[in-house]
Amino acid sequence: MTNGNDYGLVLKFDDESESFVLGFEAGIIWNKMSRGDHIVDGAGLPCHRLNIPLLVKMADIHGYDCNVQHADKDWSYFGATKQPQTGVN
After folding, report:
1. Whole-prediction pTM
2. What's residue 12's pLDDT?
3. Which partner for 37 in 3, 15, 29, 32 could form a disulfide, CB atoms 3.0-4.6 Å apart?
4. Contact 25, 48 (CB under 8 A)
5. Euclidean distance between the first and final Cα of the chain, in Å?
6. Residue 1 pLDDT grade (very low, low, confident, very high; cuts 50, 70, 90)
7. Measured on CA atoms in the order 66, 81, 23, 75, is the torsion positive or negative?
8. Where does the pLDDT of residue 2 fall: very low under 50, low under 70, confident under 90, or very high at 90 and above?
9. What is the DSSP letter of 48?
10. CB–CB of 7/48 below 8 Å?
């Protein structure tokens, strides 16, 4: 299925509510950040543009620098790189 762009659904959810879809998407990114992946992104897939503010907040909490590129009015490419830890004694 496509939305008029080159993007299509990878998996159709039984619950198609916007909040579920956005939460599922954010959960994938949260998991990668929580386990400390050096680079976190959508594996080449765009994220919902509505999720970007939340993804940026999550990145800040976990110590990541963000890069966001807007693809169109609905989709953005999100990437985050783990900031190096500074030693504090």
Report:
1. 0.80
2. 77
3. 32
4. yes
5. 54
6. very low
7. positive
8. very low
9. E
10. no
